[in-house]
């Protein structure tokens, strides 16, 4: 058998950004459009500032916003969307209301008309609200049996304390109590174009997309108030929080660390440090607890950006019997990252991945629309990617090591383990101080 | 409405060793997708080795003729790319999505493991552990795990290939040996049993030369003869139920056999459209009736193929309806309403405009699937493998557009209770 050489990479093509255009309408709505003509479709994403709203009302509002206007019932709205091969969805998070949609590109004008109708004239009909809030309550009941949901809820509580980010989902009883009148007044108070950003991506010239948005949305009411959240508190170090889930056949490990936003000077190096730790498959965490030890299927770490703060979240679902050793290894890798310099080769590999996958993220309509919308949430546009790629390309071993020390210290982490406490508590308490989760944050 | 279509150029040919090659160039972005699809899936795994096709997929990432363990991941990601593989009923795919300057490297990596994966006892044991955790996280440790794709086939089918659990039992997984893996590779992973599909930023002549350079000397082996997995249609209704200790609310799924997707595509397509007529959006028949009007279910979905991929499955397969019930809901009552709505469709037909909207939505989804070069490579490669011509991918919107109202009405009329298999999830009361 002859040994074959792995081929070198050909010369990389420069990051090429799509053509974009932007306009702020008189009512305060910002519209950003980009062209990607690969398929005759169009994607839209609208983010409306929605901080400090009642969680239950916000969830039911998103669920029922598309349930009818004074002109169209929910079924008629659905029929109108189908005619253009389209759809609309609404969702909330603690920062904003997010409306997403798509259609055949020939239907962009109609899609925006329907979006405008919903924004200006959603009626929250009593019958539909009653049905949807019950369905939503049922969905939350199901979610509360999912380890991923429970572990995240417990981590949010541990990380954010009294900040609004601590509780992102309402209880079923709270949802069931939401009245249509409360939704109408929440909509009247908060669903406004000031500070809202609409992204349009697809097989449409950007200038035409802006005109279509202006035609459909310039009458959307420009009132409303601007509400901001306080910055998230720093994480208070403390014992491992154990949330009991009797009979669980795995333990869900979640670790939260404080981080910084995309505009912070540390950000690009932080992204590389995260890749090296657990941000992609070829990372220390995956190679250790999956490929060497077989403790878990999908360990990972990711950087999450919200309006009031950023964080690194590490997660792994591991077999119950290896809970303690898996947590030891996960902490060990954090400790190794902050106490010894990163390797030259592993940094080079992370850099290639970080820069190369930027190309991939621009190569689909929905990916591009999501990326533009997400960047706009940090006040950024696509051209930020060029500088980000340059900063990743230039980050030195020293810079990445220093940033790793600053953000990945296990001493500053919030750690949550959700699992069968009767089985895992004895082994965990031999290793770490452990405290039980308060009732209601991990059931 | 005019149905839009795609006109992606596609080159197709075979190498001397039998490898089928599909090239779909698109220079609009500097990215490329490389996919290798092997014509073997869950249905072909041997009795006593449930889950083996999927376990073997994991082993294909554990090193190859010239590469140590972990090298595959590092080379792909160190090129700025992503990778994965997935195991289906009738095929197994492996793919990379990368900046186009890494095309040759991806071809090398795929050719290297097509020549021979490096399967050791240590790596086998490690991946049995990893797959066991995958099963726990996706099936055992959550409510409705494996519902309905693992739960309904054993109710509907009688033979091992169609009925068994494709994730596998822990007993079977732990019994797997390196020799099993070598046999499986020798039998099913021949170049002549595979399709290589490239989509994205490359020049066709350059790509052809690179493909020949890297795959041309992969040794030829005969492709296995694909057995028939046919089973007779049901003649009497089948019902089964199981308790899900983690589920707070009841759910059920029903399935009816549909015509052979490959052998009788024209008779099969109306079911693909019918599934959407019944369940796509608030204006669809069953959502409007069961969710919005009667509130008898909290959600309902309908699709063709147990893994929800109507254009990547062979016979035998089925159309499925899957629904979750509110507290106190009754499966029998919902099934009765489904029958009533099917009768109404079968006797009253569609309303004006109903079919146009549904077709527009299906076509928009087909186009959306093809926007990423990876989606294009996978669909074209699988269609080439199963149907002999990747260019059919460009025809799908037109073929959907040509499905007639009469054929949909006839399809609805064929979904009789006597041909139906149903599995019910009984909530275990945990919460």
UniProtKB/TrEMBL annotation, chain A:
One molecular function GO term is: metal ion binding
Q: Where's the Peptidase M16 N-terminal domain?
A: 65-173
One Pfam family from the record: Peptidase_M16_C
Highest taxon of source? Bacteria
Give every Peptidase M16 C-terminal domain span.
180-352
Protein name according to UniProt? Peptidase M16
What is the protein's species of origin? Actinocatenispora rupis
TrEMBL record, chain B:
InterPro entries assigned to the protein according to its UniProt record, in alphabetical order: Metalloenz_LuxS/M16 (IPR011249), Pept_M16_N (IPR011765), Peptidase_M16 (IPR050626), Peptidase_M16_C (IPR007863)
A family per Pfam: Peptidase_M16
| GO molecular function (one) | metallopeptidase activity
All copies of the Peptidase M16 N-terminal domain together span 20-137
Domain (Peptidase M16 C-terminal): give its ranges: 177-360
Q: Which GO terms describe its biological process?
A: proteolysis
- Keywords, comma-separated and alphabetical: Hydrolase, Metalloprotease, Protease, Zinc
* Gene3D superfamilies linked to this entry: Metalloenzyme, LuxS/M16 peptidase-like
The similarity comment for this entry is: Belongs to the peptidase M16 family.
Under what name is this protein listed?
A: Peptidase M16
């Amino acid at each position: 058998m002859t040994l074959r050489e792995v081929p070198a990479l050909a010369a990389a093509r420069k990051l090429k950004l799509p053509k974009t255009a932007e306009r702020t309408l008189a009512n305060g709505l910002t519209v950003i459009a980009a062209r990607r003509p690969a398929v005759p479709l169009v994607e839209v994403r609208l983010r409306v500032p929605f901080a400090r709203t009642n969680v239950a009302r916000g969830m039911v509002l998103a669920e029922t916003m598309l349930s009818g206007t004074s002109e169209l019932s929910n079924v008629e709205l659905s029929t109108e969307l189908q005619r253009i091969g389209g759809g609309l969805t609404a969702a909330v998070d603690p920062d904003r209301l997010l409306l997403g949609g798509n259609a055949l590109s020939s239907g962009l004008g109609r899609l925006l008309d329907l979006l405008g109708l919903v924004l200006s004239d959603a009626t929250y009909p009593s019958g539909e609200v009653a049905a949807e809030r019950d369905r939503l309550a049922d969905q939350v009941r199901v979610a509360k049996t999912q380890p991923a949901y429970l572990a995240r809820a417990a981590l949010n509580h541990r990380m954010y304390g009294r900040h609004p980010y601590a509780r992102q989902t309402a209880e079923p009883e709270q949802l069931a109590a939401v009245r249509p009148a409360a939704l109408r007044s929440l909509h009247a108070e908060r669903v406004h174009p000031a500070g809202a950003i609409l992204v349009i991506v697809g097989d449409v010239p950007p200038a035409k997309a802006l005109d279509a948005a202006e035609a459909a949305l310039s009458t959307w009411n420009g009132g409303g108030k601007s509400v901001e959240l306080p910055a998230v508190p720093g994480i208070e170090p403390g014992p491992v929080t154990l949330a009991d889930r009797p009979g669980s056949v795995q333990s869900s490990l979640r670790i939260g660390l404080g981080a910084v936003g995309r505009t912070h000077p540390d950000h690009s190096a932080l992204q590389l440090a995260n890749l090296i730790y657990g941000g992609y498959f070829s990372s220390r965490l995956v190679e250790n607890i999956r490929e060497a030890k077989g403790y878990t299927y999908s360990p990972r770490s990711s950087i999450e950006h919200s309006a009031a703060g950023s964080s690194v979240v590490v997660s792994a679902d591991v077999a119950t019997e290896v809970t303690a050793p898996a947590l030891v290894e996960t902490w060990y890798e954090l400790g190794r990252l902050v106490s010894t310099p990163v390797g030259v080769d592993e940094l080079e590999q992370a850099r290639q991945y970080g820069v190369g996958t930027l190309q991939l993220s621009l190569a689909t309509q929905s990916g591009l629309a999501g990326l533009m919308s997400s960047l706009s949430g940090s006040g950024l546009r696509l051209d930020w990617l060029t500088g980000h790629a340059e900063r990743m390309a230039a980050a030195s071993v020293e810079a990445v090591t220093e940033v790793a020390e600053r953000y990945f210290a296990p001493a500053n982490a919030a750690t949550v383990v959700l699992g069968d406490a009767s089985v895992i508590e004895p082994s965990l308490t031999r290793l770490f101080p452990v405290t039980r989760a308060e009732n209601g944050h991990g059931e | 409405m005019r149905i839009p279509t795609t006109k992606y150029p596609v080159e197709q040919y075979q190498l001397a060793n039998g490898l089928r090659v599909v090239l779909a160039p698109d220079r609009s972005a500097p990215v490329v997708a490389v996919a290798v699809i092997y014509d073997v899936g869950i249905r072909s795994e041997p009795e006593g080795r449930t889950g083996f096709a999927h376990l073997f997929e994991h082993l294909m990432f554990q090193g190859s003729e010239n590469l140590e363990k972990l090298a595959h991941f590092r080379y792909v990601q160190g090129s700025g790319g992503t990778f994965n593989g997935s195991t289906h009923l009738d095929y197994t795919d492996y793919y990379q999505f990368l900046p186009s300057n890494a095309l040759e490297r991806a071809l090398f990596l795929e050719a290297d493991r097509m020549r021979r994966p490096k399967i050791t006892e240590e790596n086998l044991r490690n991946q049995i552990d990893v797959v066991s955790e995958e099963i726990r996280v996706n099936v055992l440790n959550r409510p409705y795990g494996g519902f309905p794709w693992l739960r309904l086939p054993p109710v509907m089918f009688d033979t091992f290939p169609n009925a068994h659990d494709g994730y596998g039992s822990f007993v079977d997984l732990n019994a797997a040996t390196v020799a099993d893996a070598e046999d499986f590779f020798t039998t099913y992973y021949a170049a002549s049993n595979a399709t290589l599909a490239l989509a994205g930023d490359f020049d066709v002549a350059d790509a052809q030369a690179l493909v020949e350079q890297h795959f041309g000397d992969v040794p030829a082996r005969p492709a296995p003869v694909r057995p028939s997995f046919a089973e007779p249609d049901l003649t009497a209704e089948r019902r089964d139920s199981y308790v899900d200790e983690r589920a707070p609310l009841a759910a059920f799924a029903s399935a009816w056999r549909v015509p052979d997707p490959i052998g009788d595509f024209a008779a099969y397509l109306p079911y693909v459209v019918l599934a959407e007529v019944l369940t796509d959006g608030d204006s669809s028949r069953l959502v409007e009736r069961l969710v919005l009007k009667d509130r008898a279910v909290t959600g309902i979905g309908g699709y063709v193929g147990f893994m929800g991929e109507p254009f990547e499955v062979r016979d035998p397969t089925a159309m499925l309806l899957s629904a979750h019930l509110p507290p106190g809901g009754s499966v029998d009552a919902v099934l009765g309403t489904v029958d009533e709505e099917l009768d109404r469709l079968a006797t009253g037909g569609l309303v004006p405009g109903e079919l146009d909207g549904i077709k527009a939505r299906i076509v928009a989804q087909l186009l959306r699937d093809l926007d990423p070069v990876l989606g294009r490579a996978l669909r074209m490669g699988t269609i080439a493998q199963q149907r002999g011509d990747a260019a059919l991918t460009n025809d799908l919107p037109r073929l959907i557009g040509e499905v007639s109202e009469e054929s949909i009405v006839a399809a609805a009329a064929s979904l009789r209770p006597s041909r139906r298999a149903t599995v019910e999830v009984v909530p275990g009361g945990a919460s």
